[in-house]
Structure formats: C-alpha cells, structure tokens
Design brief:
The protein contains 4 helices and 2 strands, in the order E-E-H-H-H-H. By secondary structure, the chain is mainly alpha-helical. A hairpin with a 2-residue loop joins strand 1 and strand 2. The chain is globular.
Length: 103
C-alpha cells in the first residue's frame, strides 16, 4: 500500500475545480511590478509568451513559462509555490489584457 505524503499545499474547490488555496492577495501594484521585472529580466521570454498568447494561447510547451515561474520565485523568495502560481496567473491575465485578449 502506498504511503500518503503531504507536501504542505492547501487546496480549495471553486467554480473552476480544484485549485491551490488562496494564501496571498496580490495587489495590482505588485502584479504591475512583477510584469515590469519580468519584461526587464527575461525580455526574450516575455516576447515569446506574448506571441504564444496571440497565436495558440497554449504555454505548456514553452520554457519561458517555467522561466517566468523561476524568476517570480527569485523576486519573492519567501512565498510558497502556490502563491507564486497565483501571481503567475495574475501576470498572465495582465499580459493578455495588455494584448487585448480575453479569457
């Protein structure tokens, strides 16, 4: 029988399904600061993500998406992975909004 292991990530269920529990409410200023940081820290990766948003909208095969998560983790080293994931999601929403793309 497999042993259950907890990795310390809390989950909640919302209208979209199972998601990491909200542990931090990222402000619009923090999201804007993260966007500015990412544009400066990884300009080629940011451009790649913009192009993917414009074309397929599928970021799963992109190294830039993983690099974005790593850069945000360095920017906010005291945050849990679920918090960084939430920030990355808000950054994506900001990027798509700036490109005039709706979800």
């Amino acid at each position: 029988m497999a042993k259950k292991v907890s990795v310390g990530i809390k989950y909640e269920i919302d209208e979209y399904g199972l998601r990491p529990a909200t542990t931090r409410d990222w402000t619009e200023d923090e999201v804007a600061d993260a966007v500015a940081f990412l544009k400066q820290d990884m300009p080629e990766g940011w451009a790649e993500l913009e192009e993917l948003e414009r074309t397929t909208g599928d970021l799963r095969e992109s190294d830039a998406a993983g690099n974005l998560f790593a850069a945000l983790s360095e920017l906010y080293p005291d945050c849990e992975p679920c918090e960084i994931s939430q920030l990355a999601w808000k950054v994506r929403i900001a990027r798509r909004t700036a490109l005039g793309i709706e979800f």
